[in-house]
């Protein structure tokens, strides 16, 4: 579930919120039953706060919205993807550190 600093992405809003965004987007593909996903949740919230106004940060529950997960080959969760200009520019599979995501976001922001 998305928090105060994150957006909830769904199959219905993925194109508008992610692919058509004018700023980079970080998408956390997750599910309620995934313990590593739950461990990652606070990091995603922190990134949402840290990059507010520069990067759109959000979560996509693969149990309720599967289309984008299938389209982008998400086979294991958590998977975190960064999109810029409607294109996938970075993909992390499994639990990574906040610094890993920050480095990728900073690189994407230039």
CATH homology group: Glutaredoxin
CATH class: Alpha Beta
- How many strand elements? 5
The helix/strand series, from N terminus to C terminus, equals EHEHEHEEH
Number of continuous helical runs: 4
Report the helical percentage. Answer: 25-40%
What general form does the structure show? globular
| Number of spatially distinct domains | 1
Tell me the CATH topology: Glutaredoxin
Side-by-side strand order of the widest sheet: 1-3-2-4-5
Q: Give the N-terminus to C-terminus distance in angstroms.
A: 29 Å
Mean of pLDDT: 95
Largest sheet: 5 strands, mixed
Oligomer: single chain
What structural class do the secondary elements suggest? alpha/beta
Our estimate of the beta-strand percent is 25-35%
Low-confidence stretches: none
* Second CATH tier, the architecture: 3-Layer(aba) Sandwich
Polypeptide structure, described:
The chain has a single domain, classed as Glutaredoxin. It is 35% helix and 25% strand. The N and C termini lie far apart (29 Å). The chain has a five-stranded mixed β-sheet with strand order 1-3-2-4-5. By secondary structure, it is α/β, with parallel strands linked by helices. It contains four helices and five strands; from the N terminus they run βαβαβαββα. The chain is globular and about 35 Å long.
Q: What is this structure's SSE topology?
A:
Layout: E1 7-9, H1 14-19, E2 25-30, H2 35-50, E3 56-61, H3 67-71, E4 79-84, E5 87-93, H4 98-109
Parallel strand pairs: 1-3, 2-3
Antiparallel strand pairs: 2-4, 4-5
């Amino acid at each position: 579930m998305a928090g105060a600093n994150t957006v909830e992405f769904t199959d219905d809003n993925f194109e508008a919120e992610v692919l058509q965004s004018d700023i980079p987007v970080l998408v956390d593909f997750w599910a309620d039953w995934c313990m590593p996903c739950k461990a990652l949740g606070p990091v995603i919230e922190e990134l949402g706060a840290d990059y507010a106004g520069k990067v759109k940060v959000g979560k996509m529950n693969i149990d309720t919205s599967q289309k984008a997960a299938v389209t982008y080959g998400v086979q294991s969760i958590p998977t975190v993807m960064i999109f810029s200009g409607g294109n996938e520019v970075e993909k992390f599979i499994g639990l990574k550190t906040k610094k890993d995501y920050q480095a990728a976001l900073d690189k994407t922001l230039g």
